[in-house]
Structure formats: structure tokens, C-alpha cells
């Protein structure tokens, strides 16, 4: 018999963690290649606001796949085997479904901020943990979202995903819930690193000309500016980004729009600093 629990839908030999990982890979590499196709065909040029990466899609892909296959997949399967995640009710109620997504978003924000700001951007750990490798990209090639050292990938991608999932009781074993969470997370990372900002054309669009207030709200919801500023400056927006509640960056005053280029908050106080080698990527 399998060491994995069954949710009554999947066969005993097919772990939910593996199904979720497969769905995430389909979403990640499907969306990632869609952005790459736009780059190659010069599509959506009005939304392409950054184009600074020198590594090609083919050069980025091997390390990305290695992280996903040899770190993410084993971690997800280990979490299920230990009963920490991908376990519980096979069908979540609508209220539990929505509540879990909100709680995971909050948990992801907190865990990523701690791992990213406190650990990976500590000057003494930046190079030993290899976070400088990720910052060698300019966040203008979508799949560079997972182009990082193994330690960086574990701290910045795996733990902010699995720790909140475990803390809410495993997220149940609802296939739709897990595949949706994993796929949304994949899209967010890819978009933030793609160099595209769908908010860029809004001011000159019909919506921007006729309803500028509404356009401003929409722009706030769909912009990729936060993580772009993190790659540019290195000392802002450690967990704030597309789809993130930005709780920690707001609380600790490191949100990109609260810190000027000179490294001071809008209130005039010095912002938290990082390794200067991470700025102006």
C-alpha cells in the first residue's frame, strides 16, 4: 500500500502532491512560454516596460527545471507523506475554499518576507545562499522567476508555499483548490519577472481617458511594478507584488512606493538596507 493518504478521488498510487505539481508545471511552463512567444514575436509591446536580461530562455530553463524537479517536487511529496499538506477533506466548502486562499496569501506574505528580507538579503548571507544569482537577472524574462540557487529556491519559493499550507491544516485534499493555488502562484511569479506590466497602457486607453479614477484602481491591481522595483533597487518590496497583500512591506515601511531612490521612506526615515550589489540589476 502507499504511504500517501487517498482523497477518495485519486487512485492510491497517485499522490495529490504529484498531481498538484504537474498542474503547476503545466501552468508555469505554458504561461512562461506564452510570455517568451510574445518576446520573440514582439507582441504586446505597449506592455513591455523592461527588457534588460541577457540570458536566453534556453539558458534559463535548465536551472529552473532542476529546482522544480529536484527540490519542489520532493518537498511537496514529503509534506504529503508526513501529513502536513495535501491532506484532509476531499471537497472544501465554498467558505473554506475562499478562506484558505486568503489565509495562504497572508501566510505567504509573512514567510516570504522573513526568508527574503531577513535571511536572503542579509549581506553576510547574500552570496553564500546564492540570492545574488537571482538578482543577476533583471526580471524581464518570465521563467527567471525560478532561476536561482537551490538554497534560494527552498527559502523563497518552497517554504512560503508549503509552510502556510501546513499551518491551515494541509489545505484539505481538494484537487481544484490545490491546482488553483499552485497555478495562480505560478502566474504571479512569471508575470512579475516577465518585463510586462499590463497597467502601462491604461493611462492612454479609453478607460484612462474617460474614467481615470477607475483606471488608477485597476492599474494598482494588475501592475508588476513592485517586484520590478525590488530588482532595480534591491531594498524594497520583499514580499509585496502582484497578487500579494503586501502586509509586511507596508508594516515595515519597505514597500516600493513608500521608499525613495535615495533609500529613505516618505516620512524621512532611513529604509532597511540590503547588499548594495543587488541594486540596479
From TrEMBL:
This is Fatty acid hydroxylase. GO terms for cellular component: membrane. InterPro entries: Fatty_acid_hydroxylase (IPR006694), Sterol_Desaturase_Related (IPR050307). Pfam families: FA_hydroxylase (PF04116). It comes from Beijerinckia indica subsp. indica (strain ATCC 9039 / DSM 1715 / NCIMB 8712). One of its GO terms (biological process) is lipid biosynthetic process. The chain crosses the membrane at residues 12-35, 64-87. Its main location: membrane. It comes from the Bacteria. GO terms for molecular function: iron ion binding; oxidoreductase activity. It is found in: Membrane. Keywords: Membrane, Transmembrane, Transmembrane helix. Residues 102-254 form the Fatty acid hydroxylase domain.
Amino acid at each position: 500500500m502507499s504511504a500517501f493518504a487517498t482523497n477518495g478521488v485519486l487512485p492510491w498510487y497517485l499522490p495529490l502532491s504529484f498531481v498538484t505539481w504537474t498542474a503547476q508545471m503545466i501552468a508555469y511552463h505554458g504561461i512562461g512560454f506564452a510570455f517568451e512567444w510574445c518576446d520573440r514575436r514582439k507582441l504586446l509591446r505597449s506592455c513591455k516596460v523592461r527588457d534588460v536580461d541577457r540570458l536566453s530562455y534556453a539558458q534559463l530553463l535548465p536551472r529552473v527545471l532542476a529546482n522544480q524537479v529536484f527540490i519542489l517536487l520532493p518537498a511537496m511529496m514529503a509534506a504529503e507523506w508526513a501529513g502536513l499538506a495535501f491532506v484532509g477533506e476531499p471537497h472544501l466548502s465554498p467558505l473554506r475554499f475562499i478562506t484558505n486562499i486568503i489565509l495562504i496569501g497572508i501566510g505567504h506574505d509573512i514567510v516570504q518576507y522573513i526568508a527574503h528580507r531577513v535571511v536572503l538579503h542579509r549581506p553576510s548571507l547574500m552570496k553564500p545562499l546564492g540570492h545574488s544569482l537571482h538578482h543577476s537577472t533583471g526580471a524581464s524574462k518570465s521563467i527567471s522567476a525560478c532561476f536561482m540557487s537551490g538554497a534560494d529556491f527552498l527559502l523563497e519559493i518552497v517554504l512560503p508555499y508549503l509552510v502556510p499550507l501546513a499551518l491551515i491544516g494541509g489545505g484539505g485534499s481538494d484537487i481544484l483548490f490545490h491546482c488553483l493555488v499552485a497555478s495562480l502562484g505560478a502566474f504571479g511569479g512569471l508575470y512579475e519577472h516577465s518585463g510586462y506590466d499590463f497597467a502601462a497602457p491604461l493611462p492612454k486607453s479609453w478607460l484612462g481617458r474617460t474614467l481615470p479614477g477607475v483606471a488608477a484602481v485597476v492599474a494598482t491591481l494588475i501592475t508588476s511594478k513592485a517586484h520590478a522595483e525590488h530588482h532595480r533597487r534591491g531594498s524594497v518590496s520583499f514580499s509585496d507584488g502582484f497578487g500579494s497583500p503586501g502586509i509586511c512591506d507596508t508594516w515595515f515601511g519597505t514597500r516600493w512606493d513608500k521608499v525613495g531612490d535615495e533609500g529613505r521612506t516618505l516620512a524621512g526615515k532611513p529604509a532597511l538596507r540590503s547588499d548594495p550589489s543587488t541594486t540596479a540589476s
